[in-house]
Amino acid sequence: MRQSIIQWFRFASPQSFYPLAGRLIPWFWGAAAAFGIAGLWISFFVAPTDAQQGEGYRIIFVHVPASWMSMFIYLVMAFWAGLGLALNTRVSGMMAQALAPTGALMAALSLWTGALWGKPMWGAWWVWDARLTSELILFFLYLGFMALQAAIDDPRRADKAGAILALVGVVNIPIIYFSVKWWNTLHQGSTINLNKAPSMAQTMLWGMLMMALCFWMYSIAVALLRVRAIILERERHTEWVKHAVE
Amino acid sequence: MNALLATVRRDLLLALRRKSEVLTAVFFFVIVTSLFPLGIGPEPVLLKKIAPGILWVAALLATLLGLPRLFAADHMDGTLEQMALSPSPLGLLVAGKILAHWLLCGLPLVLLAPVLGLQFDLDASALAVLTVALLLGTPLLSLIGAIGAALTLGVRGGGVLLALLVLPLYIPALIFGAGAVEAHIAGLGSGGHLSLLAAMLALAVFFAPWATTAALRVALE
Amino acid sequence: MQWNSVGEFFAMGGYAFYVWGSFGACAVLMVAEPLLAKRRLSEVRQSLIRERLADELDLQQRTQ
């Protein structure tokens, strides 16, 4: 037991995490590609045309995974940030920093595909629906996190300040979501009810699941890639880094 | 408790020596709310409908103005480090500073809001709801803002960054604060909104000084 | 399969702009992001290698 805990903590040091991340990245790229091909196949060739929305509903196969990932990555980022704050491990803060741009990208994709879905279906690029609004706020939270980390020169301080912000954000996200939802129901008269989604066929669910797994594996791969760069940037004055790059 | 009161008293005294800083936020509030009718047009029905939102957004921005100074001066002259080393817990002193910030930047807005509400043709009961909502909401703004102020202490581009960090977190306060007045005008009753605002305030009173203290300790390292 | 021709597939039942706009944006960004991350990694690697070469050169000159 003790042995295994020590094993895990070994990877909390940048020196041993750097090669581990390098070994893992190709596997995650492979998994992302495999799930992506399966997901795209289902979303274009297996899933039938929707009775109400025609072919336009196929946007769901990228929109929903992007939204899921944007929320999930924030939670993972806050988890790493909190871990770094509690245990003072360096890799945790670097992971949080590496995840933020990917999370912001997912939020941006979710907003973009949401707008492109909304225009033909509801006749507007943007409606102040609870989910759309929360996604926009989540995007702002990502931007704030990245801007704060970019503004602080000392990486250790940037990690800790970012961690506090991420945790405050996590406490706030449910409050923001429910307040936006409440606000939305109060103003229901002026907005469109978005709950009339096309009925969920089994194949659609499979397609969404495959695409979500693809986005998930992609996020891990790109975050590991970025964390490797961050490790080298921050540890460039240590002896092991000099031997790590041949 | 004495330490908290002493901090409040000290911050108030310091602010009274530099009145312009406090007045800037108040004038800002007045001017911004007065600009909206000029931009939108003088129709009373429309103005009445958007009044709660405008007053609330202006209040958010006005409290934001004072935030960068919340810890900056004490950080520069080393007072903050003394506070961190003092026998009384830092969280308590921070709570005192936040309270002082609210008294200087939040309370004047609460008192001014009914007067400005008249510009928008709000009736007496709506003005009362607006005042109560702001009374519950502005301390919330100060508390959340303090976290942002501590995080951006001594950081490049602090002021703009602070707005970027804090404004998204202000959204629930904005929704329920402005919503209370709107619901009252619509005849739905503002009780639900106000109690949720109070609940968020209670939560923030408990957590925000703690998070602010943690952020200050990071900045002081 | 519901497509009778390639043209029909790309037309997406009249929703081509929206569907391909969504999938295209995802594809472009999800290719660009790894490339940018990769470039960041190779840039720091390059500078580290240059640094080491400079150190070695320095050492050689000093020993001569």
List keywords for this structure.
heterotrimer, A: 246 residues, mainly alpha, 8 helices, globular, B: 221 residues, 9 helices
Would you give an account of this structure?
The complex is a heterotrimer of chains A (246), B (221) and C (64). Chain A has 246 residues and is mainly alpha-helical. Chain A has one domain. Chain A has helices spanning 2-10, 14-46, 60-87, 90-122, 130-151, 155-186, 202-234, 239-244. Chain B has one domain (2-220). Chain B has 221 residues and is mostly helical. In chain B, helix 2 packs antiparallel against helix 3 (44-66). Chain B contains 9 helices and no strands. Chain C has one domain (6-63). Chain C has helices spanning 6-11, 16-63. Chains in contact: A-B, A-C. The interface between A and B is medium-sized, with 28 and 29 residues.
Q: How would you classify the quaternary structure?
A: heterotrimer
Low-confidence stretches of chain B: none
The structure class of chain A reads: mainly alpha
**Secondary-structure element order of chain A, as H and E?**
HHHHHHHH
Name the pair of protein chains with the most residues at their interface, and give those residue counts: A-C, 36 and 31 residues
Q: What is the terminal-to-terminal distance of chain A?
A: 36 Å
The total beta strand count of chain A reads 0
Mean pLDDT of chain B: 88
Uncertain stretches of 5 or more adjacent residues of chain A: 188-194
Tell me what portion of residues of chain B adopts beta-strand conformation.
under 5%
Work out the radius of gyration of chain A.
Answer: 20 Å
Write the H/E string of chain B, N to C. Answer: HHHHHHHHH
Helix content of chain B: over 70%
Secondary-structure content class of chain B: mainly alpha
Helical content class of chain A: over 70%
- End-to-end C-alpha gap of chain B: 26 Å
Helix count of chain B, per DSSP? 9
Summarize the structure.
The complex is a heterotrimer of chains A (246), B (221) and C (64). Chain A is mainly alpha-helical and 246 residues long.
Topology readout:
The complex is a heterotrimer of chains A (246), B (221) and C (64).
Chain A lengths: L1 H9 L3 H33 L13 H28 L2 H33 L7 H22 L3 H32 L15 H33 L4 H6 L2
Helix pairs in contact in A: 2-7, 3-4, 3-5, 3-6, 3-7, 4-5, 4-6, 4-7, 5-6
Chain B lengths: L1 H16 L1 H22 L3 H23 L2 H8 L2 H7 L4 H30 L4 H28 L6 H28 L5 H30 L1
Helix pairs in contact in B: 1-6, 2-3, 2-6, 3-6, 3-7, 3-8, 6-7, 6-9, 7-8, 7-9, 8-9
Chain C lengths: L5 H6 L4 H48 L1
